[in-house]
DNA sequence: TAGTGGTCTAGACCACGAG
DNA sequence: TCGTGGTCTAGACCACTAC
């Protein structure tokens, strides 16, 4: 953990211990330098982090102030996390049941969305995710064979596709463009999961991109709303 | 204009003049220091700006690279807009059919969510929103009478509640915490809207806050997914 | 005038990636 | 091993706010 991160923690601790509330002024940067024994650059790094999180705000010439607290800090759908992380955050134990890994011809849609080369096939991964044993989500991930270096893996040793791409192909997912919609289960899900035909699911269609903006994989995630409460934090202008 | 900003311009100019394209490597930070005659700190400031704009990306140990330019991101649910604006953005003509405006006793939930004073009542606004005549959404807005200065309006002269609060009470909505879930229509909706009992809706439960972080109103919005395609842009870490 | 955050410099060492 | 970006220090001056 960097000194900047540590300074961030210390400042948060200071706010809590001294019971600072909305619009209270923090110690000046010079004072924080003395208090925490680090350089001003490091203090400003910590303050920049807190400002990004909307925990504080600065006014030149006046000082640094605590932001209105009642804004919930809980992160919502706008933050891209692996489903494993999300299940843990909800206090459940994540589990996975593999359904299938198959090489397929891509649909026209997929060719466009994943920017596939002519003739390039895709590999489809199907999984059931569980939260403390309860059916939480049904996941269909579609990956170009090119990304997998032409090989169709017979096993994926990771809980999360993010870890899989990071560890085996050094690809870091950074961004996902998601369509979100209500949905009934597919016939396959009714058979596999023993859910009712008219049970409600939240369906996310997502294209995942790496740092360079290249599409890496497509996913169709059916979430069980009885397990998850989905949140979105929405800002004007942002 | 700061040196950092100027350096940003110079780097963009460099990219254009040397015709760098996606994934081409930029000169190293040390090289840019020499080229532009400023300190490394300033160069890093300029690069941070460009990285935020997603014009470039960095990989530690390797270098700094030009990003793929056409990463144009349609704004999604994470941006808070009035439904009127959203309908317009989809190319439809927004319309409103008023259902009712009624003063009510708040539920316990509502007392907590809207931080109501003891005994404070709420006013419930029910509307049908249409998009070029098609049923687009069913909206239930719940407002503390305190916000309305104790009066129950018999009409709302605005298309959007945001405009209503801005124009009549000088309250600017800045943020909403939303729960998002799939839903069937309520019995009221089935009667009013002539929709099928098992038609799918996307339901958003939202608390709207003003700039000061005070809750202003609660809304339950049932969206017709046949009219809207909902998007969320999701980032790692952000 | 004094105190605050904003910008900038010069220099150092560390962590990562590739040959 | 070398070059890259990541982190950190010490010190300087500027711009804005308040008194």
Please render the helix and strand layout as text:
The structure is a homodimer of 238-residue chains.
Chain A: H1 3-17, H2 29-36, H3 40-52, E1 56-59, E2 63-66, H4 83-89, E3 94-104, H5 108-113, E4 122-131, E5 134-144, H6 161-169, E6 173-183, H7 187-193, E7 201-210, E8 215-223, E9 230-235
Antiparallel strand pairs in A: 1-2, 3-4, 4-5, 5-8, 6-7, 7-8
Helix pairs in contact in A: 1-3, 2-3
Chain A binds a DNA duplex (19 and 19 nucleotides) through residues 2-4, 28-30, 38-42, 44-45, 47, 58-64.
Structural description of this entry:
Two copies of one chain form a homodimer. Helices cover 27% and strands 32% of the residues of chain A. Chain A contains seven helices and nine strands, in the order αααββαβαββαβαβββ. In chain A, α1 (3-17) crosses α3 (40-52). At the A-B interface, β6, β7 and β9 of A face β6, β7 and β9 of B.
Task: Considering the chains and any ligands shown, give keywords for the structure.
27% helix, alpha+beta, 238 residues, DNA-binding, homodimer, two-stranded antiparallel ribbon, 6-stranded antiparallel β-sheet, 9 strands, elongated
Task: Please report the total strand number of chain A as a whole number.
Answer: 9
**Rg of chain A, alpha carbons:** 22 Å
The shape of chain A is: elongated
Q: Describe the sheet with the most strands of chain A.
A: 6 strands, antiparallel
Strand content of chain A: 25-35%
The structure class of chain A reads alpha+beta
Oligomeric assembly = homodimer
Q: Element order, helices and strands of chain A? A: HHHEEHEHEEHEHEEE
Percentage of residues in helical conformation of chain A: 25-40%
List low-confidence stretches of chain A.
none
| Greatest contact between two chains | A-B, 45 and 50 residues
User: End-to-end span of chain A in angstroms?
Assistant: 30 Å
As laid out across the biggest beta sheet of chain A, the strand order is 3-4-5-8-7-6
Number of H- or I-type helical stretches of chain A: 7
- Mean pLDDT of chain A comes to 87
